[in-house]
Amino acid sequence: MLQHKKFVKKTKKNKIVQVSREHYLRDDIWSGTSLDPESDLASNKLSATAKHYLVVDTNVALSQIDFLEHPAVDDVIIMSVVLEEVRHRNASVYQRLRALVDSPSKRFFVFVNEHHRETYIKADVNESPNDRNDRAIRVAAAWYMKRVPGMPIIVLTNDAENRRKALEMGINAMSVQAYARSLPDAPELADITAIDSNGRADMDVDGGGAPGRGQKRKRLYEDHRPMSSVAAGIKQGALHQGSLRVNRFNPYEGYVGSESVGQDILLAGRAAMNRALDGDIVAVELLPEEQWSSASTQLRKHDDAEAPAEEHTESREDTDLEREAGGASLAAQVAPGEHYEDSAGSGEKRPTGRVVGIIRRNWRTRGYSGSLQPDRLGRPAKQGPSNVLFCPVERRYPFIRIQTRQADTLADKRIVVAIDSWEADSAYPSGHYVRTLGTIGDRDTETEVLLLENDINTSPFSPAVHACVPPLPWSVMQADISNPNREDLRHLPICSVDPPGCKDIDDALHIRPLPGGALELGVHIADVTHFLAPGTAMDAEAASRATTTYLVQRRIDMLPKPLTEDICSLRADVERLAFSVLWEITEDARVISVRFTKSVIKSRAALTYAEAQSRIDDKRLQDELSVNLRRMNAIAKVLRRQRAERGALQLASPEVKFEIDTETHDPLDVGMYQVREANQMVEEMMLLANVTVAEHVLSRFAGCTLLRRHEVPPPRQFEPLLKAASAAGFSIDISSSKALAQSLDLAERSDDAYFNKLVRIMATRCMTQAAYFGSGEVSPAEYYHYGLAAPLYTHFTSPIRRYADVVVHRLLAATLSLTRLPEDAKDGDRLHVLAGNLNLRHRNAQMAGRASVELHTLIFFKDQEVIADARVTRVRANGLVVFVPKYGIEGPVYLTEKAKHDSMQGIGKAAPAASSGNQTFQLEGDQQAIASADGGLRIRVFDKAAVRISVVEGTGHRRQLLLQLVDRAELPHAELASI
């Protein structure tokens, strides 16, 4: 049966057009249950022995996805009208709903009600599209009741009017909360139901909402302006649009980058943020210039971080908000490799504003990890749901109010909570419990937390992905060797050099003399794209994950382990497929020619950096491998010098390594990672390959090459470094990367061997983030990689662990006419989306790796106190930020009333402090120093210190390092010598 549907729509050019579409209605659309004698057996998913079948409306599918994912919820009928609306309204929820439909165990069945002759309905001119869809769901539910009369059908909807109309038709309809309460075997299910905008889990719950919801409450925040007003304000220039970044170390301070203003807009206090969360796209109104302020110069204290109200009452919430708006203090241990907000402490007024509208929410659909805030009054547990506050582990996010019947059970657990709403009369957003991760403090639990917080996909690879992997054992076939498009390089003296324990070896090297005096230098990269075909399930999964994530004790792979550790890994003494770059090069590193080829190789050795270094250093070793390593190292030194002459920066980061107990898996020791010449040798070869491939691919595909650039940092980002350098008596020239590199080379102190590295670490923190992009997006002048001083750069050398390299391998193969140009590259929009995901996932993986280092550092120090050498990297009005080289730790030291006299000693050449514990201090911003009021203590940036390191637990069971100054003069000689 053919129906004609007519409707009007607006085009991209704002023209109104009428659209007519044919709509086919059929009788042979199956119900998905064997209880229906006319249903196709192959399509049946719903259980014939289920207690009932559930039908959900669109709002339940959108807002209650955590509830639907619970194991107790199955045998669910999803109408096609619901699935389509979810697809258009929320891509993330749609993907999760599709996963439920695709899961054999969940028994979710999609009924195509819009194309069934008996369930399709026409829209009434007097009803809204939402009302029409609700009616369609009710009609389809009634059809099921007639089709399978012995099976109860329950429609789940939180819309009271929808329930009323369903009941009039004789359909059993329930709210989600009422249904959850009806399942005695899953008492936690009631906690998982989402809260509506009125602070209640559904419209039937008596007394289940937040306290005081039935009373008139004082408005704590301004209402958000409607989108029409926001759009007009942005167009007129009265409002400014941007993404909110909340200071990780001070959640009451946020920044919105704005092109229209030309710099970040400061948001001082939660009131100014107006219920916006980190990552939200917001509309900001600038305050009058006389109300502009500067970023805080205070260190923020852990225990003062958003202390929750003892009573969840209107008056107490008002007090909390007023205190928050004033900027309660917070501090956090800085994870290795992280740093304090660079803009903090400048003392200069900057554009300041307030959020007046939310353009796009960025609330995590999978929730936030943390723990329940203990009941500070010690009240006895009450029967039924309790209103409690949830404390996220990430300080950028506010406390979340939830209802739970499991408060006592969850007291010592890390849990996940999702946000449902944030009303203008509440100091906290409302949310619901999602799941339990494990016991607080357990290493596996805390690892799960950091993976969730950084959105790392840890799901097992699907059977469809594994089906793309060749079965083991795998070996190179004769057809690969004889392939005219693949060169046999098994005779070359190839080896790999990697960290100890590396199993996913994706690069190998060789060098050999050629007739005539030149050298052949080769970089051989695992030929992952031979196994990873475009358009396959494995390719889609790899593109989504984008990168492998490396933790201290764990690796979350981008590709299945049979590929990463066996088939593609360039292990020693086995034949493997590779993509090779071969240069003819002189001993002074002048490139004569270069060629690219798919190849078959056989690595002769898989060395660690230490093993390679020992062969380089021991001149007595004259075997081919050792001699070749020395040749490559000599070439690498020339390449490194040439890059430096072009202006490449030699920066530094505080990387650490752990010695792990093989039985307990706890860290036995932690120290700075040692970089050897062998590391630098491999780095130079990989840089050369990446630059060479970038040049070649761009010459063929000028408008669609995936490149990587590092933008020139704006001068304001160098301010912390410039001020610190000036106070220390040396200058930094930032006019170009070459000038900066030369300045860093001159930043030396004869009495402090670590001084130069510390300056380089501080310079690293002034840099912008390098990013992937499509060559057609920007002009060639913007391709430049500032840090490497390279006009062109890409990633080619690690396709096992980075999807960007996979894309570049395909491009390179296309230039050699081995494959066709990938479709993603042809489409500029698709390439832009791909690059965006690569950048996001790369950043997330970096943050997860650093969080893993922080976790293991906390585990190492949890049962001990250690005294170590430190350097002052920043001064604040009430304390210092110090860096501990031995452990790669940076964190705050407080000089306040809480800091006792004996913890205020030990600064390099500083005079003894006064004996009073009530010292006041004055920040000398221009001098990058802090001095006590009586002049007895003056501390400057870069000063040496000794600190005692221990672990304390703060708000929400957040463990952090406590750093306290100690008097170096009072330390025992042996202890001082160990610093």
UniProtKB/TrEMBL annotation:
One Pfam assignment: RNB
Give the keywords, sorted.
Cytoplasm, Exonuclease, Exosome, Hydrolase, Magnesium, Nuclease, Nucleus, RNA-binding, rRNA processing
Where is the signal peptide, in residue numbers? Answer: none
Name the SUPFAM superfamilies on file: Nucleic acid-binding proteins, PIN domain-like
| Cofactor requirements of the protein | Mg(2+)
SMART domains xrefs: PINc, RNB
Q: Which family does it belong to?
A: Belongs to the RNR ribonuclease family.
Q: What is this protein called?
A: Uncharacterized protein
